[in-house]
Amino acid sequence: MKFLRETGFLVLITFLLLFPSACGNQYRPVANPIVSPGGQPQSAHYAWVLNYNPTGQGSTTEIDVSGDSNLAVNSMGVGSIAEAFPSNSLSLYVANTANDTVSQYLPTLAGAVTTISLLPGSHPVALASAQNTAMYVVNSGANCLNNNGLLTGSISTISAATLAVTNTTCVGLNPIALVQSPSDGYIYVVNQGDSSAPGCVTGCVTVFNPAGPAVTGTITTDPNPISVTVSADGIWIFVVTQGDAKTPPTLDIISSGQTTIAGTASLGVQPTFSMVDPNSNRLYVVNTGGNTVSVFDAASVAPGPPATIPLLATVPVGTGPVGVAALPNGSLFYVANGGSNDVTVVSGNSFSPLTTIALPAGANPVWIASEPTSSKIYVADKGTSETTIIQTVNNKISLNLPAPSQITNCNICALQQPVMIVTK
User: Fold this and answer.
1) Collapsed DSSP state (helix, strand, coil) of residue 394
2) Taking the model in full, what pTM does it have?
3) Once rounded to an integer, what is the mean pLDDT over residues 375-389?
4) Do residues 63 and 387 touch, judged by C-beta distance below 8 A?
């Protein structure tokens, strides 16, 4: 798994500033280089743990896969909440929601950290890119004045060449996640909306064409969309919705480049997270309230109408699952359970739970990731401020790696909180 693209369970920082001017106005961000510890050559594999700091600047911890060693800790901005690599790129980007910035650096090439400023009050919450020329950032702050005179969230485009914002475009209210199709480049932004937003009262998806750059349409989804991902071939977009008192949770299926829902599928209770394994082209949806994971065959979507997707299994796991990671070799997938503080190991062939790995008491896992060699699983334990490393050969914990201190060079201070992990 290259990296995970979205999350529905991180708490967003309270909006502090409003900027009532049109996002079409020209804006020139400032990039400030910061000296950073060096990384390692890209001949091996690494995991990057994003740490949220309640009292100041967050950080990333770079872990060597083969040696389970902490290679470097790099300071990010305030309120670090999401991280992502563009496709086929070694450049890591981190969204800092509390100070309206994005941090960028080349961790394996000893690159300096560059701070990219967004519009005041942007509050970035998610990043994604299926190309190596740009990174796209979703901003949850209602500081973008759209054509209807409504203040909404926005999407910013950061050029990989200049490390500067080249465009900011209004999307919907309360945007929380995005994904870019690798086939046609269209970007889909999930907006949770509110009662004041026409056509987006209980949730919608903004379709953004970066080639414009322009919004090409808005899709009204089933109520309360929470997560979005794309099939490995880029043909289908999958939007997970939680439903409401009248509508059950559903998977809304969209054909890439289109602005209508092509079909739907049923989900379990209170889905919160989804991911597509690019190796098998399987879609995993975590049903937190139902203690299950729905597994779909994303390679066999029938266009219809209506479009349909085969359900391969509904797998019982631990209490309150929050994330899933599939091994690249297809043999197993692992589910992090926030309620029972453990990890369920599931067969990738029979979809049967095989064993349960107990995490440290009070772990409160919020993220789980695999790495390219299928030898390790990484779990972000927000409650204990550790990253748990699991060996897949025997499903044993090899290390619980502490996060950096909240205050630099303080050995007795509280630790930062791991919230996300990406691997290469």
Assistant:
1) coil
2) 0.89
3) 98
4) yes
Structure tokens at 47: 């995991």
- 42-64 per-residue burial string, b: 16 or more CB within 10 A, e: under 16: eeebbbbbbbbbeeebbbbbbbb
Q: What is the mean pLDDT of the chain?
A: 90
Whole-angstrom CA distances from 24 to 155, 169, 258 are 12, 7, 24
pLDDT score of 196:
62
- Kindly provide the b/e burial profile for residues 154-167, where b requires at least 16 CB atoms within 10 angstroms of the residue's own CB: bbbbbebeebbbeb
Specify the pLDDT at position 198.
67
- Distant-in-sequence, close-in-space partners of 418: CB < 8 Å, separation ≥ 6: 49, 50, 51, 52, 61, 366, 367, 380, 381, 382, 385, 386, 387, 403
Pick from 252, 253, 255, 261: which is nearest to 234 by CA? 255
Contact 15, 121 (CB under 8 A): yes
Among 282, 289, 286, 288, residue whose Cα is nearest residue 311: 282
Q: pLDDT tens digits, residue range 322-354?
A: 999 999 999 999 999 999 999 999 999 999 999
